[in-house]
Amino acid sequence: MTTATLGTPLPALDHGRAGLVNQVRSEWTKLRSVRSTWICLVIVFVAGIGLSALVSNIEAGQWSHLGLADRASFDPVRFSQTGSFLSQFVVGVLGAMVVTSEYATGSIRTTLSITSRRTTVLAAKLVVVGAVVFVIAEATAFTSFFVGQAVLLAHGAKALPAGSSILTQVHSSSIPYVSLSDGGALRAVFLSGTYLLLLALLACAIGFVLRHTAGAIAAFVGVLLVLPLIVSVLPSSVAHSFEKYLPSNLGLAMTLVTTRKTDFAGVLFTPWTATALLALYAVAAVVLASWLLVRRDA
Amino acid sequence: MISASRLSKSYGATRAVDDLTFEVRPGVVTGFLGPNGSGKSTTMRMVMGLDHPDSGTVTIGGRRFGDLRWPLREVGALLEAKSIHPGRSAANHLWAMAQTNSIPRSRVDEVLGQVGLEAVARRKAGKFSLGMSQRLGIASALLGDPGVLLFDEPINGLDPEGILWVRNLLKSLAGEGRTIFVSSHLMSEMALTATDLVVIGRGQLIADTTVDDFIASNTEATVLVRTPGADRLAGVLRAAGAGVRDQEGDGLLVTGLDAARVGDLALEAGVAVHELSPVQASLEEVFMDLTSDMVDFHGHTPLEVGR
After folding, report:
1. Tens digits of per-residue pLDDT, A131-184?
2. Chain A closest CA to B188's CA: distance in Å?
3. What integer pLDDT is reported at residue B294 of this predicted model?
4. What's residue B306's pLDDT?
């Protein structure tokens, strides 16, 4: 358009169309320009490291009082990832709010009226939330791991002999600590961050489905906290076949060091199966979200 | 150019837009008039692809919103002024919008300057007054330098200086050959700004015409006479076939005769005339007459009851 009113005319774009790359840039600008994003990310990082240090310290202090069975299930990796119990709710809030804050403020109508394909908006939000949560969650998981091991070391922990079964720690008198190369540790720490990524994507999809902040967060918390409660009051034969499918238990399975003896062995899926199943939940929620987004009035 | 063809939309049992067909041509300001709740905003949301019509189509330059390749560069809209995240600065809000359509950063500062918000560009939009939000909404409509612009009640919350600014802005945008579609429930404002009119009531089209034709075809020519011999003159005028109503003591409102004929008849009857003037009906009066039975939410004042 030639313009006197609007100052410099915009150079025309005769090729292509507004696509995912444009939308991802825009969503990143939106995400980084509100304070709540940074508060969420700081909480994930600080809580992850803080709880890792705290729990590792408490567990190490108990070592001398532990019996054989408890020593066998002493899991330095899991202690270091305790923060994810809190962080799962924080990334859920972040994922849901990226969508529901737009519905609450009405800015979703701005967003959808400048993009002709709504699924591009959904995809861009998933990409941006996913990337941000993945980076912060993995950084937190690995930092927490090393902080946790350092705390155990300060309590006089000793490395397990190379190539030994983890169960040998039962016969050891000293607290064990783990390095990333030990059986399953690297996988467990990596999947601990991946768990948060998948939950954030799930929450983002729930946000598109429910479109209200309180509703979306309540649904998300319900899936993680209330569903397990409901399953636990079912007759135990029924509960046993259901509980390994719960997202919270999938998260537990993902971070399990399988060579270690635990109360959960045999009850849960293997780490990679659990990861695939949780990813499947997220995909199902995203499919429902995009189906609704395209059909509903904004 | 915006073309709506047999557009209908219901929310539950409420028919918000009912078989609406109209065209908005480029180069002039087209007013979109209707009482509150008559379906103006719903229609605009359908133009912008936000609400899906139950039936019918609406196109922008011949294409549906979903088929536009760079939507922000083709159509800009101010729908609700408060459609902004309150924690985000005005500049970041516009920059996020610009990025979706490959619009350069420099353009953001330019439109902020045009709407007079450059001084508060870094301030959170949630702290803006309604007038400032309205200006930010106008800035976002202008961002993509589009050929088609929609404004839903743009002067809400603006001070008199702001209203004048919007009026001139709309006219100069239209003067550049753009298509300008402005909704308002303020008829007096449309009389000053618009050339064309689309008038709706209860979702149905009442008129698709120009402001001048709308007034001319919906009002009878009326003449105001002030005279000390009001009773006598009224009798004479009625005998000549005119409609006569009393107006504040010594005044008469005469329909069916023009001012010259009224003056001649008064002279023949020997009645002194102190004032004789044609009365131009305002758009407001015409509009109220036409839509009085279509207003969904009547205020219970004597004026309304009298209609």
Report:
1. 999 999 999 999 999 999 999 999 988 876 655 555 555 556 678 888 888 778
2. 25
3. 64
4. 35
Query: Model-level pTM greater than 0.80?
Result: yes
User: Nearest-CA distance from B99 to chain A in Å?
Assistant: 5
Tell me the domain boundaries of chain B: 2-217, 220-279
SS3 content of chain A, % helix, strand, coil (to 5): 70, 0, 30
How much is the pLDDT for B296? 58
From the candidate CATH numbers 3.40.50.1110, 3.30.70.980, 1.20.1260.110, 3.40.1190.20, the one assigned to the domain spanning B220-279? 3.30.70.980
Looking at the partner chain, which of A16, A33, A297 has a beta carbon nearest the beta carbon of B50?
A: A297
Question: In CATH, which superfamily holds the domain spanning B2-217?
Answer: P-loop containing nucleotide triphosphate hydrolases (3.40.50.300)
Tell me, what's the ipTM? Answer: 0.89
User: Cβ A10–B103 below 8 Å, yes or no?
Assistant: yes
At residue B50, does pLDDT exceed 90?
yes
Q: What is the pLDDT of residues B173-220, one digit of tens each?
A: 999 999 999 998 877 788 889 999 999 988 999 899 998 888 777 777
Lookup result for tokens 């020997």: B270
- The mean per-residue pLDDT over the stretch B249-262 comes to 85
